[in-house]
Design brief:
Belongs to the small heat shock protein (HSP20) family. By secondary structure, the protein is α+β, with helices and mostly antiparallel strands. The chain has three helices and seven strands.
Length: about 140
């Protein structure tokens, strides 16, 4: 390790210009630009990239897709297939009334997600069931 370079770097951090550099980086114009960028993406329906959570299992003659959607009812979820891509969209509501939220990790609101399945699934008959926040979609291969 070159201690001379480290010492010079540490001394630079002490200088007044260092403080001005960081103030310039985090000025008000920069914050406004970030707000504008966030407002420019209304097409993002699901801020949670991998929601709802999906597991896919395969057997010799069957494929099972399990989709976890807590707080949703069967009527809140829409499934569509296009070729071998399963599209899931809908909404879930986990609201507790008349309480202050101190900590929240569970997801609620609208969502949409697509998952590409093996090509044989595109023509396969399927059956769906929904119970206890889990949507099971079975494909007979």
């Amino acid at each position: 390790m070159n201690h001379g370079k480290f010492k010079k770097w540490a001394e630079t951090l002490q200088e007044e210009n260092h403080t001005k550099f960081w103030e310039k980086i985090f000025d008000d114009d920069h914050e406004e630009q970030n707000d504008t960028e966030a407002d420019a993406s209304p097409q993002i329906v699901n801020e949670y990239r991998d929601y709802p959570l999906i597991d896919v299992y395969e057997w010799a003659n069957q494929l099972l897709v399990v989709i976890e959607i807590p707080g949703a009812k069967r009527t809140d979820v829409e499934l569509t297939m296009h070729e071998n891509t399963l599209h899931i969209s809908g909404s879930s509501l986990l609201t507790v009334k008349d309480a202050n939220v101190l900590h929240k990790e569970r997801r609620e609101g609208t969502f949409q997600r697509s998952i590409i399945l093996p090509p044989a699934v595109g023509e396969a008959p399927c059956h769906a069931s929904f119970k206890d926040g889990l949507l099971h979609v079975k494909f007979d291969l």
